[in-house]
Amino acid sequence: MDLLPGYRELRPPEALRGVVACFWVRVTSQVGEVRVLPDACTDVVWRRGEGTTIAGPDTSPKLVGRAPGDVTVGMRLLPGAGGRVLGVPLDELRDLRVDVAAVDRAFDLDAEAEPTAVIQRLAAAVREREADPLVAAAARMLHRLDVDAIAREVAMSERQLRRRFHAAVGYGPKTLERILRFRRVVRALDQGRTDFAALAFEAGYADQAHLTRETKRLAGLSPAKLARTLSAPAPRA
User: 192 near 231, Cβ under 8 Å?
Assistant: First the structure.
């Protein structure tokens, strides 16, 4: 595997695309911090020399310190997949980083393994595991229906639906909707967009002020500062 400094994502095999968003590798070349933004996903994270942890679904930004020579490999689980794949209600892991041994020893990997072997082991561990199909279907409706309407569509009470979301995603459908909307903004900023008023409208915010408030809550930065952070090469390595 190429271990040049930087961050890169690897597409999962076809058989895993119902649960795995991507595998990723980060090789650090200098001291610094990486700002991790909420993305509705849960990651299994292996760090050379330290072992494996579970990064639960975030509702706020996290700053992760890195030192030169750090090698980190991750498997990012899709929204709605983490609860069933890991066998634990994800709301118990929300905004937490926990040792993998406390969750599922199938992901407890040798801290001195080769990164390629780590990815192979992670892929093998999830090969027979599935996401919650009801939550996955309900999540796809969030952009066009409110929670009451979604509950009717899936023939479930609103309370049952929320409980199912908390177990599979880590929080309720309204929070998931907020974070998915925020991720649309992150992708646009990462592509160089700076027309914040138009972007707010396209992403579904009430106005630019609403976009600014949500970006500060979920990224800890204004849209303009977040755009500059995303365009800078240093945090990627």
Answer: yes
What are the tens digits of pLDDT across the range 188-209? 999 999 999 999 999 999 999 9
Write the CATH number of the domain with boundaries 6-126.
Answer: 2.60.120
pTM: 0.92
User: What's the chain look like in SS3?
Assistant: CCCCCEEEEECCCHHHCCCEEEEEEEECCCCEEEEECCCCCEEEEEECCCEEEEECCCCCCEEEEECCCCEEEEEEECCCCHHHHHCCCHHHCCCCEEEHHHCCHHHCCCCCCCHHHHHHHHHHHHCCCCCCHHHHHHHHCCCCCCHHHHHHHCCCCHHHHHHHHHHHCCCCHHHHHHHHHHHHHHHHHHCCCCCHHHHHHHHCCCCHHHHHHHHHHHHCCCHHHHHHHHHCCHHHC
CA 18 to CA 131: how far, in whole Å?
A: 7
- Write the CB contacts of 34 (distance below 8 Å, at least 6 apart in sequence): 26, 63, 64, 66, 235
pLDDT for the residue numbered 232: 60
Closest CA to 216 of 193, 237, 185: 185
Q: With CA atoms as reference, report the closest residue to 167 among 75, 57, 6.
A: 57
